[in-house]
Amino acid sequence: MQARTKAEWRELVLSGRRALTPELRASEDQALVGLVTVGVADGSTVCAYVPTALEPGSLEFLDALRRVAGRVLVPITRGPGPLHWSEFTGADDLADASYGLREPTGPAWDPDEIRSAGTIFVPALAVDRRGVRLGRGAGFYDRTLGLAAPDARLITVVRDEELVSELPEDPHDIRMGWALTPGSGLIPLGEE
């Protein structure tokens, strides 16, 4: 049997996410709120993301991080290069942006601001046990994560069913060290 392509994986995962009931999504998002601060150092800088309607997490997820971390940075898209960053200060300071995203309206920092983060939460459609992450295909995170500090914890946030045995990998893909799922919490990755 031939392995699925990245495009086939994307279609499969997005179809599954679209089929989620609002109750299950809310339950999973609430579970993530209770798990997201595990291992985040008090007063530290954390990079995260503002979840879209089809991504695990919620604004409460970001608020939980704000209660522990000194700064929570979220991405701002500025063309095809690496992501820029802005501080998440609450839902009231978000505005609609490109690609159906919501972004902070405050000051923006250059892409290398990611180096200040000890923990980086990365959205994904799926991740495998080796740490290979499947994104949406635009490459923003692949171009950005290479700027992170070498000792930063790269944590991808997925549903439990989206942690799979093996995904296709390209040379430019940056592997994750951890997966955060609603049912299993923080799971170390890197098994070959």
TrEMBL record:
Q: Which SUPFAM superfamilies match?
A: NagB/RpiA/CoA transferase-like
Q: According to its UniProt record, which reaction does this protein catalyse?
A: (6S)-5-formyl-5,6,7,8-tetrahydrofolate + ATP = (6R)-5,10-methenyltetrahydrofolate + ADP + phosphate
Q: Which residues bind ATP?
A: K6, A7, E8, W9, R10, R133, L134, G135, R136, G137, A138, G139, F140, Y141
A GO MF label: metal ion binding
Which EC main class describes this enzyme?
A: ligase
- Write the record's keywords in alphabetical order, separated by commas: ATP-binding, Ligase, Magnesium, Metal-binding, Nucleotide-binding
A GO biological-process term? folic acid-containing compound biosynthetic process
Quote the EC number: 6.3.3.2
Which cofactors are reported in the record for this sequence?
A: Mg(2+)
Name the residues that bind substrate. V50, E55
Q: Which protein family is named in the record?
A: Belongs to the 5-formyltetrahydrofolate cyclo-ligase family.
Identification of the protein by name: 5-formyltetrahydrofolate cyclo-ligase
Q: Which organism is it from?
A: Rhodococcus jostii
Species classification:
Bacteria, Bacillati, Actinomycetota, Actinomycetes, Mycobacteriales
